[in-house]
Design brief:
The protein is of the alpha+beta class. It has 13 helices and nine strands. Helix 4 (116-124) packs across helix 13 (286-301).
Length: 304
DNA sequence: GTCCAGGAACTCA
DNA sequence: TGAGTTCATGGA
């Protein structure tokens, strides 16, 4: 691999596989690509089966096809991209602009629980909260309601194939960007039903209508600090309740204090926080704690 | 056949 | 204001 030093802790090169794609190599700290892409926050990335790296995921975001690979925790390789897109898109998307170590220490230092937070943080530690596109995140979590992760992924692929812009990929496979609000509005409820969204089709349609008509303004949500105000804006959309709104704020707007409560978090709260959980103790990173607890409960403790 | 899934709208008291 | 029901769908 030819490596050209460019800027601080960022290098360019070519990928190790036979396609030798341009890639950006980033020095980081305790980053888990595996946990980050497999923890249920994003639905369009999948593990590359026989990768030439220790771990590798591929998928579509921001209308681009990338692979994210790593061999050890302190370096990640972003394949099929360049420095310009890294600075413009992937740095922020992958959470490489945030000091996660400091956040983790902050959360572990809170001792209001039975030690579960520290345990969860140690196990889920390398997870990064991705900064995904708000519109796609909104639709994804509308689809997520009363649904399971494998099926959510299938539906989102189906919608993208049917309504999204095709992306020519270097491996010869055509992939599809997540459709715009306008494309979903034009498609109509019937077409959306055909992608197995079920009763959520009308919710997606409502979201598209409000977005196209500028009745919900993503920029103002971006600029607003107060989470209740942000959630209230999103909840004007049919099918968006407290949980979906919190997920969109956390995963789509990078509002790290948003705390989505789903069935898994409810289990965790019941098991480990019988006296209740004071979210202000975790502030302003309650959402990161939530992701640790979600990961720990779903992947370690299980349903029971 | 029954239960469940990163829930929310709706109904009825 | 709060508890119970209904909503599509597919996998376990």
């Amino acid at each position: 691999m030819s490596i050209n030093y460019t800027v601080d802790k960022v290098y360019t090169g070519v990928s190790r596989d036979r396609l030798q794609l341009p890639c950006v190599i980033v020095e980081t700290e305790n980053y888990s690509v595996d946990k980050t892409f497999d923890c249920g926050q994003c639905f369009r990335f999948n593990k590359v089966p026989s990768s030439s790296y220790g771990i590798e995921y591929e998928g579509v975001a921001f209308g681009r096809y990338i692979r994210v690979a790593q061999d050890h925790p302190n370096e990640i390789i972003i394949i099929n991209t360049d420095l310009s897109d890294y600075e413009k898109i992937w740095k922020k998307y992958l959470g490489l602009d945030i000091d996660w170590g400091a956040i983790e220490r902050h959360l572990i230092s809170r001792r209001e629980d039975d030690g579960i937070m520290e345990k969860a943080a140690r196990l889920a530690g390398g997870i990064r909260i991705l900064r995904q596109e708000p519109w796609e995140t909104l639709c994804s979590f509308i689809i997520s309601q009363n649904n399971n992760i494998p099926r959510i992924k299938k539906i989102i692929e189906s919608i993208s194939e049917r309504l999204g812009t095709p992306i020519d990929c270097p491996d010869g496979i055509t992939r599809y960007a997540f459709p715009t609000d306008r494309a979903i509005l034009m498609a109509g409820i019937e077409t959306l039903m055909a992608t197995n969204t079920g009763y959520r089709a009308k919710y997606l349609y409502d979201a598209a209508r409000l977005s196209v008509d500028r009745k919900i303004d993503f920029l103002s949500i971006e600029k607003t600090d107060d989470l209740d105000t942000c959630a209230a804006i999103l909840r004007q959309i049919k099918g968006v309740g407290p949980k979906v709104a919190a997920c969109v704020l956390l995963f789509g707007f990078g509002k790290l204090d948003a705390f989505p409560v789903d069935v898994w978090i409810r289990r965790s709260l019941k098991r480990h926080f019988s006296g209740g959980l004071d979210l202000s103790v975790l502030s302003p990173y309650a959402g990161v704690a939530q992701q640790y607890l979600f990961y720990y409960t779903r992947y370690i403790e299980g349903r029971d």
